[in-house]
Amino acid sequence: MDNPTTPPPAIPDTRPTPPIRRAARHWGVRVAVAFSLLVIALFLLYPPVSFDGKTWSVGRAVCHQLPSHSFTVNGQQLPLCARCTGIYLGAVMGLAGFFVLGRQRSVQWSPTPVLATLVGFIVILGVDGVNAFLHDLPNVLALYEPQNWLRLITGTFHGLAMIAILMPVVNETLWHPAVANTEPVIKNFRELAGFMLGGAGIIALVLWRPPFLLYPLTFFSSFGVVLMLTLINAVFAAMILRREGSARTGNDIVPTLLLGLALAILIIWGMNAFRDAIGALVGVPV
């Protein structure tokens, strides 16, 4: 006999969305797309319009750009410091690897041992960052002398860890379960070793620094900044547009990604404006 205290099973709401609500969502998406395109156009047209100016502006939003902590290529400083160069190149490399493996829609984190290794990369960067901070303080003994090549190495694998942890969150927010990939984003240590080999290649190229790599390194490191900010903001954009877990095709995620990109640009502008304000307040460029 049924237990009288057991609540009846919930009946799913299969009622169609009212036409007025559908129309409101439709127009909301149109407004968001128009707003996003306007912000993107302003970003491209608003000074500085040069390649160097744009990449330095993007880098300035997330990086101190200290010459002593940065690499130069062909006599020109890269727009991101050694650590940030590694972080964002590592993230771009990781995302490219997910596409090669067909995991660009993966909603599963890596198995626990692999995930723990990725978290270890993040911890190692934190240790190196704290050591560098202590080294810059007067009368404080650091563990070791900070080096740009070490900043680059720890940054590159940190960037790989960031994208591997972030992508399942983004994908679960964007994609419908029917089209999402349920494989782990990095299945095992063999695949992780392949990603680490790619990271080692990036490190070698940056340390080699032939003149012809100036613009590729400048572009892809700056692109990595925009990429990471766009992916993070795409999660919020999906919530704003009420499109969580609804995308079935690539076209379905375009409005969400456009709004995520627009929000990323606004953050870049906001961070640069904040640094300008602080610099004006203290009388020293920040």
Oligomeric assembly = single chain
Question: Beta-sheet strand percentage?
Answer: under 5%
Task: Please provide the count of β strands.
Answer: 4
Identify low-pLDDT runs.
Answer: none
Strand ordering within the main sheet: 1-2
**What percentage of residues falls in helices of 4 or more residues?**
55-70%
- Kindly report the average pLDDT value: 92
Helix/strand structural class: mainly alpha
How is the biggest beta sheet arranged?
2 strands, antiparallel
- Number of continuous helical runs: 8
Molecular shape: globular
Termini separation comes to: 74 Å
**What's the gyration radius in Å?**
22 Å
Order of SSEs: HHEEHEHHEHHH
Key terms for this structure?
286 residues, 8 helices, two-stranded antiparallel sheet, mainly alpha
What topology emerges from the helices and strands here?
Blueprint: H1 19-45, H2 51-60, E1 72-73, E2 76-77, H3 82-101, E3 106-108, H4 112-136, H5 148-174, E4 181-184, H6 189-208, H7 214-241, H8 254-282
Parallel strand pairs: 3-4
Antiparallel strand pairs: 1-2
